[in-house]
Structure formats: structure tokens, C-alpha cells
Amino acid sequence: MSTYEGLEAQLRELPKVSLHDHMDGSLRPATLIELAAEVGHELPSSDPDQLQEIFRTNANSGDLVKYLETFAHTAAVMQSAENLKRIAREYVEDLAADGIVYAEIRWAPEQHTAGGLSLDEAVEAVQAGLAEGVEAVAAADGAIAVGQLISAMRQNDNAAEIVELALRHREKGVVGFDIAGPEAGFPPSKFAASFTRLAEQMLPATVHAGEADGIKSVRDALVHGRAQRLGHGIRVAEDITVTTGPDSRSKTGDGGEDLIEVQLGPVARWVRDRQIHLEASPTSNLHTGAVSALTGDAESGMDAHPFDMLYQLGFNIGVNTDNRLVSGVTLSGELAALAEAFDYSLAELADFQVNAIEASFLDYEDRQALTAAVLEAWNA
């Protein structure tokens, strides 16, 4: 077993928190194949391992729009209450198997009504499946809590209706709102009235921004989206200037170590100083081209991700999977990959769990209790 595999196995046993994981991008390959056969939808492969590899290869295109094309396959099998319920139940079981004890799962109900379900029926089916999953985990002597984040698809211009849907179910499993889909060309300002409605009703929002679009998108999410968190958000690094120069303490100018000067622009400073949480998804950020947009290098690897720079500068950043099926990842694997790239200790990996808990949409008392429980396990 390699060091990476050993660390991933160790991390799988530790309690973790996931804030950015799309249910409709995280189906079990075998389940997708079975359900696709039932509904007559053609997949690129009927072998689970091969299908997973095809999705992962397609995801690693460097283009968010192409990355999102995979969802046509998953959405095709998620058009009935029975299938939604099953997928939600399995989703929770898979999270728990990876050591996740709290998750805010996001999905877009408006993409699951082609089979005749109403928006409310779709949400109710998913909630029933989530509840069954929680019960199944408890029956196996585990523990997990989940909440729904209802996503509106930016390109559909249907945010107002989806906001009302989220508000109707806020006491029945829904903990917040999100907008997803193609980022460029669909800024939060287009849905400003919907975000105002959420604020008036005090339902929190996280906004996809700073992934496929740059710093203007981040600023728009903060101003018009009233975002409490940023989905991905890593292109806030565009507003950070890092310069190096000779050590001014060296009298000769020779042999001195380089000094690094860091300047934060107004958006980056606002995000950092007010601890707006960044829901980073390292592998997905590589797959969608978010990292290469910063580096200018399409071949950028994990060590080029701005994650460590943002962490070292004091940004509130967490680790997520985004889409476990599409990118072929787990949260334990993402943490291990970051540890390998940046030489993180377990204590630093624990920091990311605390960051996520503090930024979650749980009540204050629940956040405090969860933080204590998670740190006790990590410290042990």
C-alpha cells in the first residue's frame, strides 16, 4: 500500500464534513447502469468500472460546459419518485462509508420533472430517501446528518420559483439555496430579486462563483447574491498579487533569501477578512479548467492549485468532492491528495473540517457540538 493509499484509508475512518457535493453527479455506477436499462437510456458503457473511467476522462476536459454534459446521463434516470428516493438513500450510505458525518447535499429539482413529478414531489422523494439513508447508517451503528441545498439552474432563468420551493421545504429538510450551471453569462445580478427574497425570509445562500468565471463573478455573488459561501470561489486568487524580491536585509544584495510580498485586492480582502467560506473541490477545479485559468497552463496539477496559498493567507477554505461519480473521487481521497501536494499534517486537514462546520448552515449550537465531536476524534 502506498503512502497516499495508507493516508486515504486512515482519513476514511475520521469524521468529515462535506458542503459541496451534487447528488445528481454522485450516483453509484452500477445503479446508473441498472436504472438506465430500465428507462431505456443508452450509456457509453454497461460496465461499472469502465463507465466510471469514461466519466472521469470526459470530466478532465478543462471545460465546465463539457464537464456538465455528463449530467444528461444521470438526470435521465432521476425522473421518478422511486428512483430519486433510491439514489438519495444510496448517496447517504456512500457518504457515511467515506466517514462523512455531516453533509449539505445540493441538487436541482427543476431537472427532475420530465417524468411528471412536480417540484414539490421531487423534493419530498429525495427527502424520504435521505431519511432512509440516515436510518440505515444508524442501524449499522454509524451516524450522519444531512440537509438539502436546493439549486436553481442559472440558464433556465427560473430562480424565483425555485426560491419559493426552497422556502416551502425549509422546515422539512432544506437548509439553503444555491445557483448552479454555466457561470459565464449568467451572473447572480440576473437573479437579484430572488436573493433579496431569500434574505427577507432569512434562508441562507451559497453561490457558484469563481470557478468558470473570474473575479467579477465573485464580486457579483457577494453583492447581488448575498452569498454566505462561495461555491468553489478559487479564482478569488485573481485578485491577489504575489511579488518576490531580494532580501532587503542583505547589505550586498547577494545571498539573501527572496522576500515575498502579497497584496490583496478589494474583493479578495473582503472574502478573507469576512471569512466568506470557499467551497473548494480540488480535483474538479482541475477538471473544469478553473486552475488552468489561473496558471495559464492546461497541464497544471494539484500542486498548482491555489488552495495552499489561500489557506496560508488566512482564507476560510474547505475541501469537497463536487461530483463523486463524474470526477471519480471521495472526500478522503481529496484530503489525501492535498496532503501529498502540500505536505499537510492531520492537524491541518482537521482545520478544513472545522472551517466547513463553521460555515455550514447548521444552527450555532449544533455547529459547536459538531466541532467538539470532530476535533475529539481527530485529536485522538
UniProtKB/TrEMBL annotation:
Q: Which InterPro entries match?
A: A_deaminase_dom (IPR001365), Ado/ade_deaminase (IPR006330), Metal_Hydrolase (IPR032466)
| Entry GO CC | cytosol
Biological process annotations from GO: adenosine catabolic process; hypoxanthine salvage; inosine biosynthetic process
Can you name one GO molecular function term for this protein?
adenosine deaminase activity
> Superkingdom, according to UniProt?
Bacteria
- The answer on whether this UniProt entry bears the keyword Transcription reads no
Q: What Enzyme Commission number does this protein have?
A: 3.5.4.4
Every Adenosine deaminase domain range: 15-375
Record carries keyword Zinc: yes
Record keywords, A-Z: Hydrolase, Metal-binding, Zinc
Instruction: State its cofactor.
Output: Zn(2+)
**PANTHER family (alphabetical):** ADENOSINE DEAMINASE (PTHR11409:SF43)
Family in the record: Belongs to the metallo-dependent hydrolases superfamily. Adenosine and AMP deaminases family.
Q: What is this protein called?
A: adenosine deaminase
